[in-house]
Amino acid sequence: MALAPPRLIDRGDLLAALDDAAASKVTIISAPAGSGKTSLLRAWADRPGQPRRLAIVQVRRDQQDAQVFCLALLDAVRHARGAPSGVAAPAATPDFNAPAMVDRVLAELAEAGRDIMLVIEDLHELRSPETFGQLTRLLTNLPAGVHALLTTRRDLPLRLHQLRLAGELAEIRAADLRFTEHETRELLAAS
Ligand SMILES: Nc1ncnc2c1ncn2[C@@H]1O[C@H](COP(=O)(O)OP(=O)(O)OP(=O)(O)O)[C@@H](O)[C@H]1O
Ligand SMILES: [Mg+2]
């Protein structure tokens, strides 16, 4: 018997906070497992009237290296642009050039026009310093009208201080995700 998905309680204030945060170039939701990062992201993305096209990458355990990660990014951007997923995507090769691939992702984002949101879920799964280096370059060179929203269980070795100084980095943390007393009551009543 299939179980109905649990009903999410409405977290309107948090959605508004995420909306504000998402006006920044880069938003990071950083909080431990089970804090509600994905649930918030889904509720925000599914809201009626969401004006952005989302390019979503879910980092899986087997997707830690730069090559697999960059190919997933390119595929997600193409999908958000309406290109059939996987078509003409470069295949994994031994002479893979990560900086060139990031340039390609940036070029396709620029061509995609405004209101694209690059969503990367579970970035704590990435391991290699090279991948974090390339991701930093991607995030600090996003074309006009393109934003990024990242989720992670831990703080990441990304060098984003310039974005922070420019007021273009927003962070949502565990304390922000904590249920209020009212929300806890609602959750208990619903279960
Ligand atoms: N608004 C909500 N209403 C009801 N349940 C919620 C809500 N937000 C989160 N939960 C519940 O809390 C649990 C954890 O949420 P979620 O998967 O979003 O966490 P997460 O931070 O993404 O965790 P992980 O780091 O493991 O990916 C889920 O089972 C979800 O059903
Ligand atoms: Mg999650």
Task: Characterise the protein shown here.
With 191 residues, the protein is an alpha/beta fold. The chain has one domain: P-loop containing nucleotide triphosphate hydrolases (Rossmann fold, 3-Layer(aba) Sandwich). Helices cover 43% and strands 15% of the residues. It contains eight helices and five strands. Strands 2-3-4-1-5 form a five-stranded parallel sheet. Helix 5 links the parallel strand 3 and strand 4. Helix 4 packs parallel to helix 5. It is globular. The model has no long low-confidence stretch (mean pLDDT 88). It binds adenosine-5'-triphosphate and magnesium ion. The site of adenosine-5'-triphosphate has 14 residues, from helix 2.
Record field, number of beta strands? 5
How many domain units? 1
How far do the termini sit from each other? Answer: 19 Å
Biggest sheet details: 5 strands, parallel
Question: What low-confidence regions span 5 or more consecutive residues with pLDDT below 50?
Answer: none
Structural category is: alpha/beta
Which ligands are bound? adenosine-5'-triphosphate, magnesium ion
Q: Work out the helix count.
A: 8
Q: What is the fold-level CATH name, i.e. the topology?
A: Rossmann fold
The string of secondary-structure elements, in order, is: HEHEHHEHEHEHH
Q: What does the radius of gyration come to?
A: 17 Å
Could you say which overall geometry the principal axes of the C-alpha atoms support? globular
Overall pLDDT metric = 88
